[in-house]
Specification:
The protein has 258 residues and is mainly alpha-helical. It is 76% helix and 3% strand. It has a two-stranded antiparallel ribbon with strand order 1-2. The relative contact order is 0.14.
């Protein structure tokens, strides 16, 4: 191996590591603050050595000057960050579902510090995100993420220009899909609380002595937690289908595969 070829190989794996590092910084569960930055960097370097392979025809030329190197690096970061952001959108759908449930049940005022975002979130949203993370790991979703990034090296080789406008437009469309997914998951609780409100309203007309303002909130809270307890298995199965289907859709959108 000549010195020039060795330099090109180092650049190749350096850019591959940038793609991997952008992924582990943006995608759950690697993006969680519990993962130290050193661990993420080490994981990105190790994974790039295993997943990324220089083409058989030779290492692509990356000697077009500083400008071309900067553009190539930014394109690699864009590919990894786009895939990581797409995975994060699925968890954002779970958090939004939790917000819907919190508002409908009347416990939206109960907030805790979400360590993954550093902001105050509803307790139901944090719970749903934790359940989604557990289901994601149980389904080997982290392996699926690495398979997706391996596919990205086949579809978009290192220093090939990265994702096109259509891929980023599709990513915006995925962002809009989280509202539909959240509404579908929260639909049973929404329907139940609506029925509860109607029932309490009728009861208030029949028994005017009842203090509905004092009765409505405990009734909605008890109904919500009862539904979540009774439908835990079905809810976990729905989360599994959501995560699997959303990741497949994200890969198809970003990398143009079925």
């Amino acid at each position: 191996m000549t010195a020039d070829t060795a330099q090109q190989t180092v650049l190749f794996f350096g850019f591959a590591s940038l793609r991997m590092l952008a992924l582990v910084i943006a995608a759950p569960p690697f993006a969680h603050p519990a993962f130290p930055l050193r661990l993420r960097v080490g994981l990105a370097l190790a994974a790039s050595l295993v997943i990324a392979h220089p083409p058989a025809a030779g290492v692509p030329a990356l000697d077009g000057g500083i400008g071309s190197l900067v553009v190539a690096g930014l394109s690699e970061i864009g590919v990894g960050a786009a895939l990581g952001f797409a995975v994060r959108l699925a968890f954002a759908a779970m958090a939004l579902c939790g917000e819907f449930v919190s508002v409908q049940s009347g416990i939206g005022a109960a907030t805790v510090l979400d360590p993954s975002s550093g902001a105050a979130s509803g307790v139901i949203s944090v719970l749903f995100e934790l359940v989604a993370l557990i289901v994601f790991l149980a389904l080997d979703g982290h392996h699926a993420v690495f398979r997706a990034i391996a596919l990205s090296f086949e579809r978009f080789p290192v220093a090939s220009g990265g994702l096109g406008p259509d891929s980023f437009a599709g990513l915006v469309g995925l962002g809009g899909a989280i509202f539909e997914l959240a509404a579908r998951l929260a639909a049973p609780v929404t329907a139940a609380t609506l029925l509860s409100s109607v029932t309490l309203g009728v009861l208030g007309r029949l028994v005017p002595q009842l203090n509905l303002m004092m009765l409505q909130l405990p009734a909605h809270v008890a109904l919500t937690f009862g539904l979540l307890a009774l439908g835990a298995n079905a809810f976990s199965a729905s989360i599994a289908r959501l995560l699997g289907g959303f990741l497949d859709r994200a890969v198809a959108t970003l990398f143009g595969v079925g």
